[in-house]
Amino acid sequence: MALPAIPLAIIIFLIISYKLYQKLRLKLPPGPRPLPIIGNIYQVKPVKFRCFYNWSKTYGPIFSIYYGSQMNVIVSTTELAKEVLKENDQHLADRFRTRSSASMSRGGKDLIWADYGPHYVKVRKLCNVELFSPKRLEAIRPMREDEYTALVESIYKDCTKPELKGKSLLVREYLSSVAFNNITRLAFGKRFMDSNGVVNEQGQEFKKITHDGIKITAKLSIAEYIPWIRWMFKVEQDALDKFAADRDHLTRVIMEEHIKSGNTKQHFVDALLTLQKQYDISEDTIIGLLWDMIAAGMDTATISTEWAMAELVRNPRVQRKAQEELDRVVGPDRIMTEADVPKLPYLQCIVKESLRLHPPTPLMLPHRASANVKIGGYDIPKGSIVHVNVWAIARDPAYWKNPEEFRPERFMEEDIDMKGTDYRLLPFGAGRRICPGAQLAINLITSSLGHLLHQFTWSPQPGVKPEEIDLSENPGTVTYMRNPVKAVVSPRLSAVHLYKRVESDM
Ligand code: HEM
C-alpha cells in the first residue's frame, strides 16, 4: 500500500467504526436499507411525499432514510408532528443548507435559511411584529384589492373574445400574474407589469434572477450529503456569484429609488429601511428577507389557488354552493372585498379543505436537529434532518372521515384551525418556524377565489367530465399540479363595469 493511503484508510476505518458504534448504541428509527455511500437517495421516488407515505405503511409512522451519509427522519402522524413541532421544537428548529442555499443566503443571514439562534429570533420578531402585523396587512389591503380586480379584468377580456368563446383557459396563467404582482408590490413596492400585462425592463430583470435562482438550486448533487466527497463536485461558484451580484444590484437600485422618493409607504422595502437601525440588521439581511418573501410567497399562493380551482371545477355542487353564498352576501351589483370574508364561511371552508388535500409544501421545509432528541421513543441524533409529512397527516383516516373526498362541509361541522394549533391540519407548519405569511396567504387565496366564483362560472374543458380532471402532482419542494387545470369560463354578473380593474397607487 502506498504510504499516503494509510492515513486515508485509518480515517475511513474510524468513520465506519463510529457509525457502527452509533447504530448499536442508539435506537434509531427503522427504514429501508441504505446502500453504501449513496444511502437511499436513488430509491426515493420523485413525488417524495407520496413515496414517504407509502414507506410509512411499511416502516411505521416514524422512519429514517439516508441521503448519502445524512440521516433524514420522516414523521407521518398528528402525535409525532406534535412531538417535533411542539415538545422538541427548540432543538429541531435549525435548517440544513446545501452549498448553494448557504451561498445564496450568505450563510443564513436571511430568515428561511437561518439556524435558530439570536439572529433568527431578532429577524423573526421583525417579521411577526412589523412586516406581517395585522396593521400592516390592513394598510396594504388596497393593493391586494387592486390585484383581485386586475385578475378579473384579464380573465374577462380573454373569455369574452369571440375567437375564444367556448374554449378553455389555462387558469394558472392568470393566477401566476396576480401572485407576481401582489408579492413584488408587497416586497418592493413596485408593479412591474403594465395594464396590458406587459412586464417592464426591471420586471424582466427580476424574472431572470428568480429563474436563475431556481436553475442553480435544482442542480443539487449527492455530494451535498456526503461532505468528504464534496471536493470532487465543485459548486458552480461563478453562477452563484453572478446570481448574488444581479440580485443585490437590482435590490439596491430599488432601495435607492425608495430612499430618493422620501415617500415611505407600507411595503416591506420601506419598512425594512426604516427599521434597519432599530433592529440592527445588515444590508445582507434586508436583501435576504425581501427575496425570502418572493421565494416563499409567490409560487405557494399560485399553487394553492390553482388546486382549489381544480377542485371547484371537479365539484360543481361545491362551486354552486359557494356562488349562492356570494350572491346572498355580496349580491349582483358590486364586487366582493376582503371585508366580506368573515360573512363567507363556506368560502373559508373551501380554502381549508383545499389546503388539507393539497398543501403546497407537503413536507413543510425540513428542520435540522441542533441537539440529540427523542421522537416517538427513537433517538434522533444531532444534525439529522426532520421532515413532517403534513400531506399524509391531513389524509389520515384515524382523524378524517372519507379523507380523499373534497367536502368543505367537514369544517362547518368542526372548526379546525390551520395556523399551527391543531396538529391534524398543518399546511403552514407549527411552532417557532411556522410560516409568518400564513394570514396574508389565506387572505390572498380566499379573496382570489371569492372574486373568481362570484364573477364567473367555471366548467371543465370540452370533452372532459368533471371527475376526469387530473389531480396528480409534480415533483418538487412546492407541489404544482402535474397537468395545469383548464376551464371554460363565463361571466356571471351583467354589469360590465364590475369587470374593470380598480387601480390603487399603493
Ligand atoms: C398557501 C401559501 C403558503 C403556504 C402553504 C406556506 C407554508 C409554509 C411552510 C410549511 C413553511 C415552513 C414552516 C417550517 O419550516 O416549519 C413556510 C415558511 C415560510 N413562509 Fe410560507 N407559506 C405560504 C405563503 C407564504 C407567503 C405569502 C409568504 C410571504 C410573503 C411566506 C413566507 C414564508 C417565510 C419567510 C418562511 C420561512 C419561515 C422560517 O424559516 O422561519 N409564506 N411557509
From TrEMBL:
> Per UniProt, what is one Pfam family of this protein?
p450
Regarding the membrane, this protein is recorded as: Single-pass membrane protein
Question: How is this protein annotated for GO cellular component?
Answer: membrane
Q: Which domain of life is it from?
A: Eukaryota
The record's listing under InterPro entries reads:
Cyt_P450, Cyt_P450_CS, Cyt_P450_E_grp-I, Cyt_P450_sf
Could you tell me where this protein is found in the cell? Answer: Membrane
Q: CDD domains given for it?
A: CYP98
Main localization (coarse): membrane
Record keywords: Heme, Iron, Membrane, Metal-binding, Monooxygenase, Oxidoreductase, Transmembrane, Transmembrane helix
Q: Which residues form a coiled coil?
A: none
The record's family statement is: Belongs to the cytochrome P450 family.
| Binding residues annotated for heme, in chain numbering | 435
GO MF terms listed in the record are: heme binding; iron ion binding; monooxygenase activity; oxidoreductase activity, acting on paired donors, with incorporation or reduction of molecular oxygen
**What is the name of this protein?**
Cytochrome P-450
Cofactors, names only:
heme
Instruction: Note whether Manganese occurs among the keywords.
Output: no
